């Protein structure tokens, strides 16, 4: 039974969620192993996921896409459990977001300097080719 796009029905199987979120079932199991999600199990041990599990997985995937560590994601999830209004979670997410933006700005500066260095070398090599061999860049 494929539940892709079906947000009203629960529970979901691990393969349903893996397909919907475009991750492997192993990734979902790993998130369970590290204590980020807690799926229920049938008597036969088959995992099944509630709406809350699905929402938590989506939050984890979004956090990973934004570059947050699993520990940072765990902290934000736990903050929501402590403060159901979500205020503490939002404040922490803003703080982590500011940290990520600073990291991105640093990387942009580094890449810009690297680009300038490579361009300077390239121009120097082209000049040397012209001077020593009478030919320009082809």
TrEMBL record:
InterPro entries reported in the protein's UniProt record: DNA-bd_dom_put_sf, MerR-type_HTH_dom, MerR_fam
Pfam families: MerR_1 (PF13411)
Annotated GO MF terms: DNA binding; DNA-binding transcription factor activity
Alphabetical UniProt keywords: DNA-binding, Repressor, Transcription, Transcription regulation
Segments forming domain HTH merR-type: 11-79
Name of the protein: MerR family transcriptional regulator
């Amino acid at each position: 039974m494929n539940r892709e796009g079906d947000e009203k029905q629960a529970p979901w199987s691990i393969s349903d969620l893996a397909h919907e979120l475009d991750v492997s079932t192993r990734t979902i199991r790993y998130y369970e192993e590290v204590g980020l999600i807690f799926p229920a199990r049938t008597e036969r041990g088959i995992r099944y996921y509630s709406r809350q599990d699905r929402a938590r997985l989506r939050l984890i995937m979004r956090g990973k896409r934004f570059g947050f560590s699993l520990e940072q994601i765990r902290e934000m999830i736990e903050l929501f459990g402590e403060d159901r209004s979500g205020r503490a979670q939002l404040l922490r997410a803003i703080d982590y977001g500011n940290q990520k933006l600073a990291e991105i700005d640093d990387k942009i500066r580094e890449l810009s300097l690297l680009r300038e260095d490579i361009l300077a070398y390239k121009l120097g090599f082209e000049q040397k080719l012209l001077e020593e061999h009478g030919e320009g860049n082809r």
